[in-house]
Each structure stands twice: as C-alpha cells, then as structure tokens.
Amino acid sequence: xxxxxxxxxxxxxxxxxxENCDVAQKLFGxxxxxxxxxxxEKGRFKK
Length: 47
Description:
The protein has one helix at about 15-30. It has one domain (about 1-45). It has about 45 residues and is mainly alpha-helical.
C-alpha cells in the first residue's frame, strides 16, 4: 500500500526540499518498532 505522508515544497531550490525530505525519511524510519518503509519522490504526489 502506498500512502502520502508529507509534502516538501518550500519556495526554495530543489536541494532544500530534498534535504528536508531525506531528514524526515530517516527520522520516521528510525522510530522504535517501525517496520514501514519511507521514501522521497520528486514532484507532486500522484494518487
């Protein structure tokens, strides 16, 4: 199953949003007992 968790679309350069997503991905995945996989995708969320 694929679920939308967050959007990083600050009015900054692409690297800024990518870095924020990478940090969030690591923090979400590092929580004790979490078995869900988190990842970042470029562009707007598509259902």
